[in-house]
Structure formats: structure tokens, C-alpha cells
């Protein structure tokens, strides 16, 4: 008997507005009757669905398997011709971007809330990516949102569920369903980018003095790390940990920073591991961390750009341009200037990089929020960044037969050439929205009145004086599509070149997150001792002044941040409260 299509009456739900990262809410919100179905129908009402090919993937978090079946039911009923689905509903965000591009799909639906916790009482998300493999632009997400506000019914196809554990070709009513190996295509892509033989040779020769440890944080990247490090590079099983994806990420917070990736930090320090790395829930973020050596994301992308000609993909195709998100430190700007490359400062959100990549003007880019990537796909890519570092270290050691080059050596060499941007980020998570908005309003008032201009502020602990040279609200005009993005973060600049940025983040599902970014630059002429000072010491006075000017503690009602991310030589992230 032919599968039957039914039309189910429904009513709109408030607040189904997707951002760049899709629609993120608590699992229990998505579990409401009709809630998930409404949003999926709104996606299909907003794209050219008839005869389309769509990719389905995700990070395997709680509520994913049943949502895949919902997508199949509604998509088939709406005219999708073919679905390409990762085995067991697992497909990292970078791997999904690659699949969309490789198989020329119409787009993809990713079930992820990125680095946020999973489980029945935690977060879930649905994100739509377009045909270039990148996040849906605002004109698409706005259209989806408009559809959610007027929806009256959704279509479903009644058919038995697809077994997502079996690789192969299947039919689902009138629709073809291809269940694929989640890992294979992505490994093939990385083999075409990096010098795998060089990396393997280096790791083989230094098994005793250059140990590697990758921590998957129970997220989606575990199977990819196993395929790379164990199966391709021949490292022992002990080189990976927490690499079995879990619906609740092992009860942890799959965010690769010094606070939440403590499982990596502890083992690296205890066992003197030279190279450690971690990725997040959906695989688009990364952290590079070795014994006594933490690499800030701002430094990481700059160092990859500096060493780009050691990576075959860039040696063959050249580097077209470099970019960073506005809050990210200006280290990569210095590399661009030295190499004569275009540099772009964009708002936070990978879609802004995607426009530049599609126009052939950008090759390597990064965000301070542990996101690094290139134009090989249209998402940030955690595993790519890890292999880039291994490629660079292998190349550096090929040219250093008598001394083992490690993470600290690369950092110190970089600082000796370009100087150092001391950088730290303070995250205040799940704060009351009223307080967060009051903080923004306070800074906006100072911007309009000019009341902070040329004012002098003194650090209580060090007596260091800072003179405010300006305050502005970052605005970006896209050089490709000429769209304008306003209110992207408030920036206070100081006469010595330091700056502080304040941003409201929309990546959580509950309350507001306020992020404060602090940056102070020191030139290479300062010397090795000054350049290797712990960031917490180098930034202490500026942080005190930033908190005083912004009245942050008063508005947010918090004495301490939830997470502190600091830079190398040597600091630790703190979890407070």
C-alpha cells in the first residue's frame, strides 16, 4: 500500500526565531506537541523543496533520533526527492558542510546546539544550512521565522521508521534515503588538504617524546579522531579519550576551553603530554593545549596563517585573504600585513566568512570562541584545526633535526616576529536579560553623550592609568552583498592601543550571556621576558578599569564571571560559582 500523506492542523508557537546557529531551546520545549513539526514544516515552506536533496546530520544529542524520523516524515510529504543521512544520525557540522558541497545538495538540516550541554533537561537545536554548506543567511532564517508565525498545518507521511544504524540505500514513501558512513568523506577531504605522510612520519619518529591526546568530550568528533589518529596516523588507543558520542555528552559540557575541557587539561599536565586537543559537541570548535602551553584561539588562527605554506592545500592554491571576528585579537592582522594579504574584520557568525570565501577573497579565518577554519568548507572546523597544528609541527621539526619543536616554541617564535596580543575573555552566563540590557544601555548612553571620551581611569591594584580614546558600536558593511550588520558589539579603545569589547551572545537557550573581551598589544621589541608574562598579570589593570567603566558587576549582579579564558605562559581557566 502506498504511504499516506496527512495534513495535521496546528497553531503557531511564539519565539521560533532562528539565529545563525539555528533554533535553540531546552529539549522540553521541542518535545511539546507540534512544536518541532511546526519548525521543520516552516523550513520546508521556505526553500525550494520539490525534487530537492537534503543532508541530515547532528551531534547525536538527546532527542536527535526521533527528530530525524520527524524530518523524514515531513520532508517526504513535502516533496523532498532524496535524503542523505549520517549513520546513527551522527554527522559533525564540518562533515555535513562537506557532504552538502560534495554531493551538491540543496541544503542540510543539522540537529545540534553546538557546545551547549545535552540531555532531557538540557539543550537541543535545529539548524538549516544552504547549498554552499554554510549556515542559512538572514534572508532565509527570517523567512523561516515568518512562516512559523502564520503556520496552520504541517504535512506528514505515515511510513515505518528508517533504521538509521544500517548503511545503504532505502526508500521512504516516494523519497530515497541514503544512510552513509559519517566519517569516510570527511577523512578523504582532510587527506586532500594536509600532508598526511609527513604527519605520520613525525609522529612515528617521536612516539616517546611527543605524545598526543585528543579529548572528544563525548561529542560527535570521537569517531573522526579515531579514524585520523589511530587508523591513519597509527597512534595507540591511549591517544584518544571520551571519544564515544553520548546523548548527554557524558553528563558534561562539551565546550573545548580550559574550564569545561578539564578532563584533557588534567591528563596533559599529569602525564607531560606534548600535544593535547579537544573539540566540542558538534565538532566545529577546538582547543590546542600541551604541557604548560595553552594556545588562545586568536593566536592559533594567526599561527596557522603564518605557517600556511607548509600545508599542501595552501601551498598549491595560495592564501587569498585572512579574517577574524571583531572580538578576536588582532594577531592575525599583523600576519596579513607582513604577507601582503587582505584582512577582514567581521561580526561574530561564520556566515560572514562564507560570503568572502564564496567570492574568492578569503582562505583562513577564526573566532576567539575557539572556532578556526578555512575555505575548504563553509563552517568552522575543529578537527581541521587540530590536524593543521600537527602538520605545522611536523614541518617545523622536519627542519629542526637536533631540537624537538613544541607548541611553546612556535608561540615564542611568533611573538618574537609579530609581538603579542595579550587577550582574555570573561563570560557571564545565564544572567538576567534585564541586567544585560541595562549594561548595553549604559554604554550606549556614554556613546551618545561622549561622556567617556578622554577620561582617565586608574587601576586599583597597579595604579596603571588608562585614557579612553573612543567608544563605538561595531557595524559591518559586507563587501560582497553590501548588507549592513549593526549593533555587533560595543568597543572601548584606549590611547595605548588597548581595547575592551562587550557583546551579548545568543548561543544559549536560557537567560543572556554577556561576554567581555580584553586586549593589550606588546610589540616584539619588548623582549622575551615581557612577551612571556602570564596574560592574567599583563591584563589585570585593564580588566579592573573595564569593570569599573562598564559597571558590569552592578548591572549583572555577579562578582565573578562563569568562565575566564586567558592566554599562554601559563594561566588556567576558572569555573566560579
UniProtKB/TrEMBL annotation:
Its cofactor is Mg(2+). It holds the Pfam family PGM1_C_vert_fung. The keyword Magnesium applies. It is an enzyme of class 5 (isomerase). It is found in: Cytoplasm. Residues 16-154, 205-289, 301-399 form the Alpha-D-phosphohexomutase alpha/beta/alpha domain. GO terms for molecular function: magnesium ion binding; phosphoglucomutase activity. InterPro entries: A-D-PHexomutase_a/b/a-I (IPR005844), A-D-PHexomutase_a/b/a-I/II/III (IPR016055), A-D-PHexomutase_a/b/a-II (IPR005845), A-D-PHexomutase_a/b/a-III (IPR005846), A-D-PHexomutase_C_sf (IPR036900), A-D-PHexomutase_CS (IPR016066), Alpha-D-phosphohexomutase_SF (IPR005841), PGM (IPR045244). Keywords: Cytoplasm, Isomerase, Magnesium, Metal-binding, Phosphoprotein. GO terms for biological process: carbohydrate metabolic process. Its EC number is 5.4.2.2. It catalyses: alpha-D-glucose 1-phosphate = alpha-D-glucose 6-phosphate. CDD domains: PGM1. GO terms for cellular component: cytosol. Belongs to the phosphohexose mutase family. This is phosphoglucomutase (alpha-D-glucose-1,6-bisphosphate-dependent). It comes from Psilocybe cubensis.
